[in-house]
Write a structure and sequence with these properties.
- The chain folds into 3 domains: about 15-120, DNA Primase, Chain A, CATH 3.90.580; about 130-210, no CATH class; about 225-345, no CATH class.
- The protein starts with 13 loop residues before the first helix and ends in a 7-residue tail after the last strand.
- The chain has 12 helices and 15 strands.
- The strands form 3 sheets. Strands 1-2-3-4-5 form a 5-stranded antiparallel β-sheet.
- The protein is of the alpha+beta class.
């Protein structure tokens, strides 16, 4: 059979793009967990952070190369053309010179990837920056204010905080709020919650403490942090409290008291752990919060396991963030919680 190689700029062969990404990008790395690659951007050189940060990503599954520093998305063809200073003919020659099997769609394509697509790919607004990269300060006053807030709450050093906490200046709904990404098992962000911290002059928006990602089903926070070394998973209501406890996850503002409050996605995500871990609910102090006490009874009646705040601690602090801060800790030890868990009605609070 005679095979005639053809050339399509819409679908350059993945290994061709990967090879160009490695030869043109600075210090390229492969990320096995989600099949992506990143490098220092050869187009913008990433300003002052050149050589230190790698903010340019090649996402084969999305057929997209995106640089968080330029803030631009490219089709692989456009990127190779620009980064390699190559012409259409050059690229065509290189591709056809290799042994590639591609479809024929012989047409130029200069369009930029749009913002919504980037958000689909990364899960957070397209212009988001990771606040944890600016703990030593930034020239941006809103970022500095957000970092100050994170530090005041001890989130910069909390043992179980996510690897990234974002801020976007441009998102219509979530701009200048702190964005907590809900990473799943493989590092995607199906859901996020943003929190007001005084980053805007918009009084109405500032009064809405938490906002959810628009149109997304709630997922479980911190799934990528769950370890097999601890037999329990601690399910908090809010993401901030979950940052102070190993194996702490959160379900984001459900009116807990009933497992039915969880979304289908959350239920299936938690169900994945039931063979390997005991699921323990951790609510606010039952001593200081009447609603929390009611929810505890409800959960126990359903056979669930719940952390019962010891009197001397539960009288003093209303949640884990306060507790950690009050005691100058970046972690509430697992043992304290583990020894104060009750499961089911037989164990119910007297
Ligand atoms: Zn760039």
């Amino acid at each position: 059979m005679i095979y005639t190689p053809t050339f399509s700029i819409k679908e350059l062969p993945e290994d061709y793009v990967t090879r160009k990404f490695y030869s043109l990008g600075h210090n390229p790395t492969y990320h096995k967990n989600n099949g992506s690659y990143n490098c220092g951007c050869p187009i913008c050189h990433e300003g002052k952070s050149w050589g230190k940060k790698s903010r340019c990503w090649w996402l084969p599954e999305q057929n997209l190369i995106y640089c968080f520093n330029c803030g631009r998305g490219y089709t692989p063809y456009n990127w190779i053309k620009e980064a390699g200073n190559l012409t259409y003919q050059d690229i065509k020659k290189e591709v056809l010179g290799g042994e590639y099997n591609i479809v024929n769609l012989d047409k130029e394509d200069d369009e930029l990837i749009d913002e919504e697509l980037i958000e689909d790919v990364f899960g957070v607004p397209y212009d988001s920056v990771n606040l944890l990269e600016f703990l030593d300060g930034s020239s941006d006053s809103v970022i500095n204010k957000a970092v100050k807030y994170l530090k005041e709450r001890g989130l910069d050093s909390a043992v179980n905080r996510p690897d990234k906490i974002y801020l976007s200046h441009k998102d219509y709904t979530h701009r200048d709020r702190i964005i907590f990404p809900f990473f799943d098992f493989i590092g995607r962000i199906p859901f996020y919650q943003s929190r007001a911290f005084g980053g805007t002059d918009n009084e109405v928006m500032e009064q809405v403490r938490y906002l959810s990602k628009v149109g997304a089903e709630k997922s479980v926070f911190n799934l990528d942090k769950v370890s097999g070394d601890i037999d329990d998973i601690y399910v908090f209501e809010g993401p901030i409290d979950a940052c102070f406890m190993k194996n702490g996850v959160a379900v984001a503002g459900v009116s807990v008291g009933d497992k039915q409050d969880l979304t289908d996605l959350q239920r299936s995500q938690l169900a994945a752990f039931t063979l390997t871990h005991r699921i323990v609910w951790v609510l606010d102090s039952q001593i200081l919060d009447k609603t929390s006490e009611e929810k505890t009874h409800k959960l126990l009646a359903q056979g669930e396991c719940v952390f019962i705040w010891p009197k001397e601690i539960g009288e003093k602090y209303k949640d884990f963030n306060e507790w950690a801060k009050g005691e100058g800790l970046n972690e509430i030890p697992v043992d304290i919680v583990k020894t104060n868990v009750k499961c089911g009605l037989a164990d119910s609070m007297k």
